[in-house]
Amino acid sequence: MGVSKRESITDKAADEGAEKTAKDDAIHLRRRIGLLPAISFIIGTVVGSGIFIAPKGVLMNSGSVGLSLVVWALCGVLSTFGALCYAELGTSFTKSGGHYTYLLETLGPLPAFLRLWTEFIFIRPAVASYVSLAFGRYVVEPFFMPCLAPPSLVKLVSIMGVTFVVAVNCWSVTLAARTQVSLTFIKMFALILIIIPGIMALANGKTENFQNSFDLESLSLTKLPLAFYSGLYAYGGWFYLNFITEEVINPNRTIPLAIIFSMVTVTVCYVLVNVAYYTMMTADELLISDAVAVTFAGRALQGLAPVVPLLVAMSCLGALNGGFFGAPRMLFVGAREGHLPAIFSMIHIRRQTPLPAILFLYPLVVIMIARGEIFQLINFASFSRWLFIAMATLGMLIHRYRFPEHPRPFKVPLAVAVIFTVVCFFIVGLSLYSDPWNTGGSCALTISGVPVYYLTIKRTYVVPVGWRKTFNYYSQQLQILLEVAQQEVQTY
Q: Which pTM does this prediction carry?
């Protein structure tokens, strides 16, 4: 007997329903990040400790109030240019992984591996340490003012903050996203709380701190790249959404919209916050302050002064959460491509989080918190970070030329991409002269990944068979202990 059309349709619907159920039950990273969480993710990661600590570094290396404000504005414009380039990259290549993925797709496996190597040997631990030390400082320092807080207590509280963020990101993607949205609203309130009294005082004629604001006598061209490093660090985070492309709902629309809205908002707020700082503090007072926002609150917000350190600490926690949400996805994708041990490409079978990749970062960050010095960490990490960002946008330009027919749902103007790439390479090159110790060390550590790549990735036979068997055994035991497995659904 023949099958009726209605029965055929019913069977097809049942098959589709069963397939959808199987996919929902399968182990894989879900698309859970909509437009609001994406905006919160960028703003919440960008606005962290930088705007509350970096003004000191920008002023110290630029030499004058006026020039420091110019540096802040230019850093915002440059970061926006870079973010627009990454919007094109994020819509052209649908994999997560950010810098690593784009270098792999445009320049090849060696630059991509070196990006992974530097990210998890020192860039990510250094950046997370910087933010967490700022968190600890703003939590502890109000209880000891006007004296300095004990460094050991600051580090202990910093480690507690990192532990909390790691626990949240291991537990649930949804919880981490909701935490990020909440902390973003708190940190925007903190910025507004600083901007309003500063602008009001400026409108009422308090302009004495802006007299002779472009005094160029103390300007040093060799230090100027370090001023940009501090400013660009404060804007750092605009690229983190590209780390989680496979978890973004409708990325072709969400990524460009979230990036444009977030970067315009952050640039305006940062410049206004610095204007507010200089309205209430002289340049010398800002330079001797280890917690600029706390000093500002003591001048302009006497009634609310105790609240400001707490708000700044929450802001730092949001940046830390964003970093731990995004960066492990680069490790995850790198392991999936065979550039790192397979254990890091696995996710928890019930919580659907990249548990091994998140946990791998935790001890590295704790070690650097215990040993690091806050401004050295910026310069040390910035060289390699900006070198690879410049290489990624250069790769984008090369890919455009070689594959003009490749789909690009969002395309940044050519001039924007060229300006950003050239400026990044210029800053990176000049910084080797400005701070040869830190940037030279960063360069050496980056190059050290080359023999690692050729010995362990390119020519795996170099590693003794016994070592490989031992490593595989312990990897299997760790997989059982952590209850993790490979993805069962392709998400790109």
A: 0.83
Q: What is the pLDDT of residues 245-256, one digit of tens each?
A: 888 888 888 999
The answer to whether the beta carbons of residues 432 and 220 sit under 8 Å apart is: no
pLDDT digits 0-9 by tens, 106-157: 998 999 999 989 888 877 888 888 888 888 888 887 787 777 788 889 899 9
Mean pLDDT of the chain: 82
Question: Which H or E run contains 485?
Answer: strand 484-486
Contact between residue 186 and residue 318 where contact means Cβ atoms under 8 Å apart: yes
Q: Give 480's contacts (C-beta < 8 A, 6+ positions apart).
A: none
pLDDT of residue 13: 47
203 Ramachandran zone, left/alpha/beta (phi>0; psi -120 to 50): alpha
Give the integer Cα–Cα distance in Å for 356 and 347.
Answer: 7
Q: Which helix (H) or strand (E) holds 346?
A: strand 346-348
H/E stretch holding 180 reads helix 173-203
In whole angstroms, what separates CA 354 from the centre of its chain?
17
Distance CA 44, CA 172 (A): 18
* Dihedral in degrees, nearest 10, Cα atoms 17, 20, 22, 25: -130
d(CA 489, CA 492): 9
How far apart CA 336 and CA 95 sit, in angstroms, is 11
Alpha carbon distance, N-terminus to C-terminus of the chain: 43
Q: What angle do CA 127, 133, 138 make, to 5 degrees?
A: 130
Six token digits for residue 11 = 């069977």
Q: Six-digit token pair at 257?
A: 């919209």
Peptide bond into 150 cis (omega under 30): no
- pLDDT confidence of 103, banded at 50, 70, 90? very high
